[in-house]
Amino acid sequence: MAIISIVLPTFNGERFLRESVDSCLNQTFRELELIVVIDGSTDKSEYIMQQYDDPRLVVIKTENRGQAEAMNRGFREASGKYWSWSSDDNVYMPDAFEVMWNYMQEHEEFAAVSTDGLIIDEKSRRIGYQEFTWQCFLYRADVARTIPVHRSEARILEDIDFFLRLKHYGGPVGRISRPYIKYRVHKHMVSHTRIKERPLISAKLNYEYITSGISQGDMEAMFMDRLSQCALHRAYDTMDGIMAFAREKAVPFLNALERKNLFLRTPVGWLQNRIHIAVRSQLGKIRSRLKLLHYLTLSQWSFHNSND
């Protein structure tokens, strides 16, 4: 029986699938199983998976029902005491699960652990560093079974939704401040192709988190930010959805939100918003690249010292 179960849902992800699967099966921690759920793919994903001959690999074919349902299907087959999941475009470092498993043995008070990650592009070039990512993690299966399953209404934000509920109902999440995954950013990733949907889903989920006590936050600032994200892409239908939700919930800052909504639809409001988001985005990229440079410098220094 496996100690760790990894579920990897994929929908038409043939381009990076083999590299992602290999990074799971080639871990230094061997007592694991990888459950690949082919979620109605019409590409060569099934053919790629047929090329493997590893008893630790389980392949499940389903109709296309979305990532949340694919993960729920995969975890129904999981036998490990510790669970994780991955994407078909991310790549683990070889010792990722050994490091996380050791951490969990030493910290029984934690329900899960998460690590930092390197951001890579389509050609696997390192372009940034991400701290405390929800991309590389390990959590206790018995804790996961006590909270609701992955929810389809949290599409695009399944990882954040799950871990906020895990922390609230299951216990604290530990952190390893080193990168153990390569998180790939590319134009075909779901968070990019469905970017116009994300603000409305996020607004609804964050409203639920804050009102139910799952997380703390400034509700008004959250709604304002989601409107701004929509306006950047002129996603006026999504802005209408956010406003309808705010009116339905009778939020106390509704008048201010109405004014913001109208202003963002004007040429001046759109331009001002675009400049603000662009500056914030560039500052974020600069910080990410500086963190990457710091990490690479320390890694090179450690390598030289170990060879002295």
From TrEMBL:
InterPro entries: Glyco_trans_2-like, Nucleotide-diphossugar_trans. The keyword Transmembrane does not apply. It comes from Desulfomonile tiedjei (strain ATCC 49306 / DSM 6799 / DCB-1). Residues 5-131 form the Glycosyltransferase 2-like domain. This is Putative glycosyltransferase. GO terms for molecular function: hexosyltransferase activity. Keywords: Transferase.
